[in-house]
Design goal:
mainly beta; five-stranded antiparallel sheet; 4% helix
């Protein structure tokens, strides 16, 4: 990814671009279970604001999804997101229930 965004663009954009790495690994150990890992490297584009908002950290996320049927899934996510706008977001959890008609 080649971006000028700070915190995914939520805190604005810098004048220069920085190249970072992101990637996913997805494994289906069973027909109805999905295990995934995601890495998203982030770069702090603001040199002078780092003391105020903190440096950006690389994101790591692990998820497990159970495919109940063709219309329903349940997913759980654990994320290590590090510093986001001068707040720590380590040990972040999410649970999603999805139903499609």
């Amino acid at each position: 990814r080649n971006s000028r965004g700070a915190q995914l663009g939520l805190l604005g954009f810098a004048e220069s671009c920085h190249t970072t790495v992101e990637g996913n690994v997805i494994v289906l150990p069973l027909d109805n279970v999905v295990l995934a890992y995601e890495l998203r490297q982030k770069n702090s584009p603001y040199d002078k604001l780092d003391k105020l908002i903190g440096e950006e950290d690389t994101w790591h996320a692990w998820s497990t999804t159970w495919v109940i049927n063709d219309s329903m899934t349940v997913s759980g996510v654990y994320g290590l997101l590090g510093n986001i706008a001068n707040s720590s977001a380590d040990a972040s959890f999410a649970l999603q229930f999805k139903f499609e008609f």
